[in-house]
UniProtKB/TrEMBL annotation:
GO terms for molecular function: ATP binding; ATP hydrolysis activity. Belongs to the ABC transporter superfamily. PROSITE patterns: ABC_TRANSPORTER_1, ABC_TRANSPORTER_2. Keywords: ATP-binding, Nucleotide-binding, Transport. Residues 2-229 form the ABC transporter domain. This is ABC transporter ATP-binding protein. It comes from Boudabousia liubingyangii. It comes from the Bacteria. InterPro entries: AAA+_ATPase, ABC_transporter-like_ATP-bd, ABC_transporter-like_CS, P-loop_NTPase.
Amino acid sequence: MLKINQLTKTFGSLKAVNELSFEVPDGEIVGFVGSNGAGKSTTMRISMGVLSPTSGSVTWNGQPIDRSVQRLFGYMPEERGLYPKMKVGEQLNYLARLHGLDAPSAKQAVDFWTETLGVKKRINDEVQKLSLGNQQRVQLAAALVFSPEMLILDEPFSGLDPVAVEVMSEVLLEQSKAGIATLFSSHQLDLVERLCDRVVIIREGQLITNDTVQNIKAQGTHEFQLSVLAPEAEVAALADRVGGQVSAGEATGESLLRWDGSDSQGVLSSALQLGQVQNFGPLVPTLTELFREVVAAPTAEETEAK
Ligand SMILES: Nc1ncnc2c1ncn2[C@@H]1O[C@H](COP(=O)(O)OP(=O)(O)OP(=O)(O)O)[C@@H](O)[C@H]1O
């Protein structure tokens, strides 16, 4: 398990990471989310041991991140890190051997990951000759080729086409089933929602949320929505009763009623008197909507300053 404990990193007067604590347990995929400049890459660099913290610590199974621990981590840095003039296959083979695989195992791993990630045909090409998306696939192969115990991936999905996104999603889910701990940052919240066991949201270096996707969604503002085949004017009277709002639905003659969910069964029976009810239930917000709410809310410091 990776444990980030009271981590702080300052650059001059800027606190890029501010007393941040969270964990990435074995077999879990943790999505690391925050606006541009929130401190995600800085946290990941420190977790990988390529940047030292100002204070606080990161440990792997209780051990500080030294060279022996670094060897267990598959890392995809934001600035990427392949040698542009080296051939894809040579580069991956070099990395696999560097991490202790013998020659036949390294070859097998290179074949497997280039095949899985769809770059096997490019194995003899220099990395710099590949499209950006294919370079990204090779980056992912580089993080995976030596069977790491932990994956630290800084925006692994950026620049990938939809097919590669699907392949990579499957790879992460399989790795997680095999017990690998994964921390990945992303601005693609639909993917985070789909893949992650847990989501860590940070803002200005500070932890805002650390919870399961399910819990985060359950805590969001819960409105109800009902769709009924009845004229808007008739549904408006019902809306007035519960302080809701009515709008036209997509289907002909359909009206949508949104309200805070109070007296839901009473509203349903009244709506049934008006016409056929098509849909009825809580409107579960997407992670993207919740993220917008969280990021738009004032910070504790801003609230205090008022
Ligand atoms: N080496 C550095 N020197 C000075 N400031 C830095 C350095 N690295 C990062 N920062 C600053 O620290 C803050 C956090 O940056 P970081 O790259 O960790 O954010 P991020 O959440 O990864 O953002 P993005 O989503 O844009 O990649 C930013 O304000 C950034 O400008």
